[in-house]
Design a protein that fits this description.
Length: 228
């Protein structure tokens, strides 16, 4: 029924009765997302999810009649991108599928690294090959590994507002619950503050890394990327 519903709503949906079926689908073509039930008779959906996640980046949404908080947490802990409890509104499922696919697409873009390029922005230079940041005055500025990773995300997406969740995902600050997402969101705010203290003339009135009200942050500078 679920396969038929998804097909009627524009998806190419393929049924799978076992882990072996899932792997056959993965081996024979592009799979954008997996809907995985927790209770599968002789097989355990959580164990399947853990094994797939160790080998695949394909988004996985767990579906289960088990809806207690600790059961949801078990799904997130083995790598599920979302967890939907039965019974559910099919339209809600469609919305969650679209959200997960959109997040996966953006995360792939955000995490993109151009390791052999030099980036120039507002007089600054970032040499990705040698991992060096220089100010407009020519001074080398030391960034931590996490600060550098944040700068890479921003340079790959200039003038594009990014949510805290998107930045956290790109930096692999994963959330296992709403409270965890809140914690990682605060961690992103702290990280942004640290980067601002190093690249902004006035960190309290930032001109490069600005707060986008109601969204998150935006790198408000043109970026030129040059091959090195």
């Amino acid at each position: 029924m679920l396969t038929q519903f998804l097909q009627q709503n524009g998806s190419i949906a393929l049924p799978a009765a076992s882990e072996a079926d899932v792997r056959r689908h993965l081996a024979t073509g592009r799979i954008d997302l997996i809907l995985l039930d927790v209770m599968l008779g002789d097989e355990n959906g959580l164990e399947i999810c853990a094994r797939l996640r160790a080998e695949q980046d394909v988004p996985i949404i767990m579906i289960s009649a088990l809806s207690a908080d600790h059961q949801r947490m078990s799904g997130y802990q083995v790598g599920a991108d979302d967890y939907i409890a039965k019974p559910f509104n099919p339209q809600l499922l469609l919305a969650r599928i679209k959200a997960v696919l959109a997040r996966a697409h953006r995360s792939s873009s955000l995490a993109h690294r151009r390791q052999n390029k030099t980036f120039r922005f507002a007089g600054w230079t970032y040499d990705a090959k040698h991992d060096e940041v220089r100010s407009p005055e020519g001074f080398q500025v030391a960034l931590s590994r996490r600060e550098t990773a944040l700068l890479q995300v921003l340079l790959a997406n200039p003038r594009i507002p990014l949510t805290r969740e998107e930045i956290a995902t790109a930096l692999d600050v994963t959330a296992e619950s709403d409270s965890a997402m809140g914690a990682s969101g605060r961690a992103i705010d702290v990280l942004v503050g640290r980067l601002r203290s190093k690249i902004e003339k006035q960190p309290k009135s930032p001109q490069l890394l600005r707060t986008e009200r109601g969204v998150g942050y935006v790198f408000a500078a043109d970026v030129i990327a040059e091959e090195t």
